[in-house]
Amino acid sequence: MTSTAPPSPSPSPEPIPADPSDPSDRVELAAGAVPDDNRFVNADLLPVPLARRVWTTYNFTALWVGMAHNIPSWLLASGLVALGMDWKQAVLTIALANLIVLGPMLLTGHAGPKYGIPFPVLARASFGLRGANLPALIRAAVACAWFGIQTWIGGVGIFTLLGKVFGGWAEASEIGGQPWTLWLCFVLFWALELAIIYRGMDALRRFENWAAPFVIVGALVLLVWIAVKAGGFGPLLDQPSELGWGKDFWPVFFPSLMGMIAFWATLSLNIPDFTRFGAGQRAQIRGQSLGLPTTMTLFALLSVLVTSGSQAVYGKAVWDPVELVAHTDNVFGLLYALITVLVATISVNIAANVVSPAYDLANLAPKFINFRTGALITGVVGVVIMPWKLTETPELYIFTWLGLVGGLLGTVAGILIADYWIVRRTELDLADLYRPGGRYWYTGGWNWRAVAAFAVGGVLAVGGSHSKPGEGPFPSDGVIPFLKPLADYGWAVGLAASLLVYVALMAGVTTERRSGSAAR
């Protein structure tokens, strides 16, 4: 990756503000303001210089189009149909979820163009220079799991489609319970992803720019194909809801809504990893507003229509698009679908699930881990934890995995938003985010108030987690039974609780809000 460290002429102790006429109010760290041998600094964690903050509205829109149009996103929408919703209920659920999660996405993303800092450095303002490793490692662990899920899905997609083209792949000798040809597809796909991200953020931006429209075309082709098979679009729209709009619908709707929010709750934390390259606030606000809710809703619509069509054609809802495409014997169609699967999965995986943990792991040990090393560690961990079982059923994927992740990440988001917008009014001391003993050192590098707020919000958000008998890892009456009623609203509960607790605890601290300082 190209170094994000600024050039080093004569040293200066203060940040350099942007041109006063610049409406984005961007700030750049002066050369020499932070010692190079600082144990909390490396080139990838330092602010992006103003000259390299060049991402435009199109770049952010393309980023989201590329990330939203992927197989797990498809599984979200088609999974809702498999759970009994009709196409209108599924699209409504996903559209509402993405409008809700856009709010914290824009709030945390504000620090990127203004200060040029990644997520783990922003977290230092609230958690402390050392304490920031807590939310960073939680985010990194989730990203590693997602990386494994996406890579496995991509590998299986390649295996399935090439098997249809060449035949005989599924009958290959097995290793670890799977055909060796499947493992080969998985490993080759894994290596391709790491090779692209190893080239850095500029390569990622260029890849997303052309990948985004390609994936949209692929999804539209699949829709036309299933419509032809079904005899028109009528059967796709006529599949009835198994839940109705009454008492059977709402117990599925609310946990599904939280699951849909949780799908991008990861990015609502580490979106500064991308917005730090933004040309200004307008670029990131317009780009994300155009890119996230609109494209996710469009993709959800395509997904549920195709899944409804599969129900009309095959008598059951085929919620996996790769499995659905495998029903055709057209070689050209299979190869086109194969390329689409490759592009779609790489597009989201390297952006959403490698960039963040690479920065997060670099924050853990800046002297020993840079962006590239962090990306490699992510790739290894994502395979070792064997996360492919999480997508075995819609219940396990949406309710258990996404529900648990959403509760914890919503808790972190509440603290970040409270600190940056309410406590500090968006004003940070840029140099002190890298200085031991500075404003954000608190007690030994930890802000116990943020840790306490995280503990309270986390327990309230996920303490009531429950599963139906035989369908998940939690007891049916909840881990903490009296918190079970809150479990279906985990993300919202975690965000609201941690925000309120953090603001209350910080109210007793002498804070110079406009200068961004806090008592240690």
Automatic annotation (TrEMBL):
The chain crosses the membrane at residues 62-83, 89-107, 136-160, 180-198, 210-228, 248-269, 290-314, 334-356, 368-390, 396-423, 444-464, 489-510. Gene3D superfamilies: Hydantoin permease (1.10.4160.10). Residues 1-20 have a biased composition (Pro residues). It holds the Pfam family Transp_cyt_pur. Residues 1-25 are annotated as: Disordered. It comes from the Bacteria. It is a multi-pass membrane protein. InterPro entries: NCS1 (IPR012681), Pur-cyt_permease (IPR001248), Uracil/uridine/allantoin_perm (IPR045225). Its main location: membrane. It is found in: Membrane. Keywords: Membrane, Transmembrane, Transmembrane helix. Coiled coil: none annotated. NCBIfam families: ncs1 (TIGR00800). Belongs to the purine-cytosine permease (2.A.39) family. This is NCS1 family nucleobase:cation symporter-1.
